[in-house]
Prior knowledge:
The protein is an all-beta fold. Helices cover 0% and strands 53% of the residues.
Amino acid sequence: MRRLGGALALTLAVAVPAGAATLYVTNTRSDSVSVIDTDTLDVVATIPLGPGKPNRVVFHPDGKTAWVVYDKSHDLGVIDAEARKLVRRVRIGGNPYNLNFTPDGRHLVVLDWSSDTSDDEVIFYDLAAGTIDGRVEVSTWPAHSVFARDGTRLYVSGETAGDVTVIDVATRTIVDRVVHGGGDAMGLALTADGRTLYAAAGENKVVLKIDTATNTVTGRIALPGVVHEATLTLDGKFLYTTLRKANRIVVVRTADDRIVATIRQAGYPDLVTMAPGGRHALVTNRVANLVSVIDLATHTQVRTIPVGRAPHGMALRPR
C-alpha cells in the first residue's frame, strides 16, 4: 500500500562538485537527513523527511534513490537523490527496522520486527511489481544484514536472539543459524574475499569470526564492553567497533585480532561508515548530535560534523 507524502519543505543545499561522494545521515529527532560531502566533510544539504521518526537509510545500487525507515509511523520514505527531496512514503512491513537491497537492485529487503500484522521476518519486496514475493521468518529482532559476495546468501543478525541467520536468496529459505547468545547483537562485516564474516555478539563483549564456507565460528575477539557495530576499513586491515554505553570506538588489527586503539566519543557512538578513498571513518554520535571523523592512519579523531538531533542511520551514495 502506497501513500504520497504531504507537502514537502524545500531542500536546503549548496553547490556540490560533480562526482563528489555524499553520505546521508538520518536525524531521528529532527525528521531530516543531513547530506555530508565526504571530501570536504561539510554538511551540504538538509532534506526534510516529515514526521514519523526516520531512522535507518540505504541507497538503491543505482544511486538514484535512498530509502528510509520510519520507526514511529512504521513505513518507508523514498528520497530522490538528485532532487534531494522526499518523493513518497511506502508501507511494506508491519514494523520495519532496517533495509537492504539485493545486489542486482531488483528487490528491497526489509528486516521486519514482530507487530500486530507481522512476525519477525525478512521481507523480499519486488520493486518493479510493487509486491512482496517472499518472506522468511527469523529469530527475534532482525537487525543488520549483509549479502555474500556472489549474492546467493544473506546473513542477518538477531538483536535479542543473539544469532546470525543464513538465508538462501534464491529459495528464500534458512540454510543455517549461528547461535552465540549475546543480546544487543547487531553489526556484521564481510571480508573482501567473502570468506570471513565478523559478527558483533553484543553483551557477550566479543566479535565472532565466522567461516562462511561452513558457517562455523573460527575465532572470538574479546572487547572491553558491549559491542554494537563492526565495520572493516576498505583495505581490510582494521575492524572498527562501537561500544555505545562506554562512549568508545575500539579498533582491532585483523592480522592478529589485537586491539590497537581506543577512541573516546562524545555521546553514544553508533554506526560506522568508511569514506571513499580510505582516509576517514565517519561515526554517528546519537546523543551528541554529531558525526565524528576518525583519521584511519593514526586512529584518532580529527574533527566533528554537527548534524541534526539524534543522528543514527548512515548510507553512502554510490558514485
